[in-house]
Design brief:
Helix content is 33%, strand content 17%. It has a six-stranded mixed β-sheet with strand order 3-2-4-1-5-6. α6 packs across α7. The longest helix has 17 residues. It is globular and about 45 Å long.
């Protein structure tokens, strides 16, 4: 495989994310705090090396984050759209659990939306496409659940393992290699706040 690293950026905060609502096809904008999240990324990326593949979900919250982080013209890729929640769009986990106490998107998918198998296939297609293009260092701006799924798929783990990975808005993660084994190099680094500090508000 040609890929040496994949840098994952979750978009900045939105009103729906702040309230815990599952957001996939609803095209919500960044909040003022979300714009600060994204602008804080610029200072991190201005010191980074070269990316030969820069991609964003076409959804406003991800694309706007990429622009504010200093990447004005990322390639918009529908493969990076959030997991489609179907009937659970706009619902919080607490609301969903009143209907199905055992629900997790990584185990159950979204009713009327995407199954775990469909999302795993989408992750596989992304990696295949980037490899065929000869990318070595990929940067992508996207959403919490699809990025967690992509990370777990890179590591060769069952998609259900993503339940154990937390990802904040405006965070940076990086996938790479440990010798010849897919590895996690960085996870949920948030330039806009101290490493061990609470999220403001």
């Amino acid at each position: 495989m040609s890929i040496e690293s994949i840098t994952l950026v979750r978009h900045g905060a939105t009103e729906w994310a702040d309230s815990g609502k599952h957001t996939s096809v609803t095209d919500v904008a960044l909040t003022a705090e979300g714009r600060k999240d994204a602008q804080a990324l610029w200072n991190h990326f201005v010191e980074q090396g070269h990316f030969d593949g820069i991609y964003s979900s076409p959804m406003l919250r991800a694309h706007h984050t990429a622009i504010l982080a200093g990447f004005a013209v990322p390639e918009l890729h529908r493969g990076l759209c959030e997991w489609r929640y179907g009937r659970y769009e706009g619902m919080t986990t607490a609301e969903i659990h009143r209907e199905n106490p055992e629900w997790s998107v990584f185990r159950c998918g979204g009713p009327g939306g995407e199954s775990p198998e469909a999302v795993r296939s989408r992750c596989e297609e992304l990696l295949k496409e980037w490899d065929e293009k000869g990318h070595r260092h990929v940067l992508c701006f996207a959403h919490g659940h699809i990025l967690r799924a992509l990370a777990v798929h890179w590591l060769g783990l069952d998609l259900r393992f993503a339940d154990h990975l937390h990802l904040d808005p405006g965070s940076i993660s990086r996938l790479g290699w440990e010798h010849e084994v897919p590895a996690l190099h960085l996870w949920n680094y948030c330039p806009q706040r101290p490493v061990f500090g609470p999220r403001p508000g």
